[in-house]
Design brief:
alpha/beta, 303 residues, single chain, 60% helix, 14 helices
Length: 303
């Protein structure tokens, strides 16, 4: 619409210029304006032309002003369409809890009232995250999982993760987490996971049921790797400590930064570009040491 107004303004300006030029020529080249008026069938036609020119000028100015306001409206509209990351995350949470796939897990949170309470806590946490900036602060276990599930549900292109040791257990949260990992790959979204362990813990890792399932599902969209702490200590002595308790990254959208407190997983959600860059650097450096963790590798082991 803005382009249309610009064209109208140009047309009006052009017409005004032409009419003004003609009027000017007539005024300057005619010796006796009264004679012209008398010989013309229209009374005071020159005055009429001048009035029309003035009106066209006024119309052009009005359209120009309106056009600028219209552009301003479009800018506001575009800004409104550019939702914040937290708005998008909240929509992903809404989509997740309202989807059939979340039904079974939501039941594990308790009865309807308890589920509603946890959902309200999640909305309050999202509100705080939006108001406080780009870091959620430490989240208790169930809220942290709900963030992760929402991010997995809303993932678009890529998920990349670092797992420190064999951290899976038989909790309902971990079962849902594993299921959603496989669902991401089923949607043809690339998921890479690097297990970081000491060499002595390899046997325990590959005998963990959740890890076995991941190796079985390894393919084009689901990739598993292992990195040994000993190799990092030799060439990147500080990198291991920088990995903390592990993390998950979702596209270039958000980072889920794990914390473990007495076998209870907690964590932070980071959404800033600086955080993304920092964790991406760690993952890229770690990737240089990664060994493909698949059936062929396991079969080649002397254990």
């Amino acid at each position: 619409m803005a382009e249309t107004y610009e064209k109208v303004v140009k047309v009006c300006t052009t017409i005004t210029g032409i009419v003004s030029a003609i009027s000017s020529i007539l005024v300057t080249t005619t010796n006796d304006i009264n004679t012209i008026i008398k010989n013309t069938s229209n009374w005071n036609w020159l005055i009429v032309v001048l009035i029309i020119s003035l009106l066209l000028c006024i119309i052009g100015i009005v359209l120009l002003i309106f056009n600028k306001k219209e552009k301003g409206i479009h800018i506001v509209a575009d800004n409104n369409k550019s939702e914040s990351k937290i708005d998008i995350l909240q929509q992903s949470f809404d989509d997740y809890i309202n989807s059939g796939e979340a039904t079974q897990y939501m039941k594990t949170l308790g009865d309807k009232d308890e589920q509603k309470l946890k959902i309200n806590q999640m909305y309050e946490s999202l509100k705080n995250l939006k108001n406080n900036g780009e870091d959620s602060g430490e989240l208790e276990s169930k809220l942290y999982y709900l963030y992760i599930f929402s991010l997995l549900h809303g993932a678009k292109t890529r998920v990349w993760a670092v797992s420190m040791g064999s951290e899976w257990n038989d909790s309902e949260e971990e079962k849902e987490f594993l299921r959603m990992n496989f669902e991401v790959a089923r949607r043809k979204i690339h998921l890479e996971r690097i297990f970081v362990i000491e060499k002595k813990d390899l046997k325990n890792l590959i005998n963990t049921e959740a890890v076995i399932e991941q190796i079985k599902n390894r393919g084009v969209y689901y990739k598993t790797y292992v990195v040994f702490k000993e190799d990092l200590d030799k060439k990147r002595p500080n990198l291991y400590n920088q990995l903390g308790c592990g993390f998950l990254a979702f596209d270039d959208f958000a980072i889920a930064d794990d914390r473990f407190v007495e076998n209870d997983i907690r964590g932070f959600i980071h959404t800033s570009k600086a955080s993304y860059k920092d964790f991406n650097t760690k993952f890229t450096e770690l990737r240089d040491f990664a060994i493909v963790l698949d059936k062929d590798y396991i079969d080649s082991l002397p254990i």
